[in-house]
Amino acid sequence: MPKSKNIVLIIIAFFSIYVIWGSTYLLNKIAVSELPPFMLASIRFISAGVLIFMIAKIIGYKLSITKKQFANTAVAGFLFLTFGNGVIVWALRFVDSGFAALEISAQPLVVLLLMRFFDGKKIKLMSVIGVILGVIGIYLLVSQKQVISQEGTMLGIIMIFACMLSWGYGSLFVAKADLPSNYFVNTGYQMITGGIMLFIASLTFGEHWTFPTEWSQPVQLSMLLLIVFGGIVAFTSFNYLLKTVSPEKVATSTYVNPIIALTLGWYFLNEQITLQSVIAAIVLLTGVYFINTKKKLVIYSRFRK
What we know:
Elements: H1 3-32, H2 37-59, H3 67-83, H4 86-91, H5 97-104, H6 107-119, H7 125-142, H8 145-148, H9 153-176, H10 183-204, H11 217-244, H12 247-250, H13 253-269, H14 275-292, H15 298-304
Helix pairs in contact: 1-5, 1-11, 1-13, 2-10, 2-11, 3-9, 3-10, 5-13, 6-9, 6-14, 7-14, 10-11
């Protein structure tokens, strides 16, 4: 593939995980107001996976993969979708959509620490500063009295952090695992396997299933957008980027996601944006910048000279 075409695809893929994923917090929040969380996520991903396979067949892509590749897509499907996404949807019953996105903006911090723990990657000085700022930002975010005083909020915060660990480890796993070479097919298998595991979780927790005809119009529209754009388009882009650029760069979607989510949550759901949340966002995103920047501290550079 020509280099120029690669660059265009990378730009489109980053736009998808930046903007489209930023809007999924609002869409999930709307849908989970009526639907059980694991049922919601199961329908979303199984539907998206089936559509992906249908499109792949029409285009002429081969769906056959090895047993090892299938096992790896199932592991990725669990880390990203069954646990990583399903539990976030569950947590959205207790926290605002913008708040959840803001907490998840610390994802690059988690990826960096996991790369240090599992791969032995050295943490540079700028990244150390980023980690410190990230910890401060998270503390500012979760220490707000109006947040922690609400019933179930702390549990939601803790579970979202657990999802961040799942997504972080999943990013490292996918970057090295033997997966289907076609990103579209790879996404389809992850969607199907992750969705089936969510279906099992839904039945295990005794969730009550309903037909789409019983849902309100906003929930129907939210689910459609989640399946087509949040599922097929954005997740395919995500898998493409994990094999094309480094995991840290993919994790930078958290720069934009919380801004989109906070704005949409405030506009459509009247979610409150506190001054402390704004300060926490600035500190967190500054930390993310330090983690991902290739620049050196000016003082440090001069000292080295």
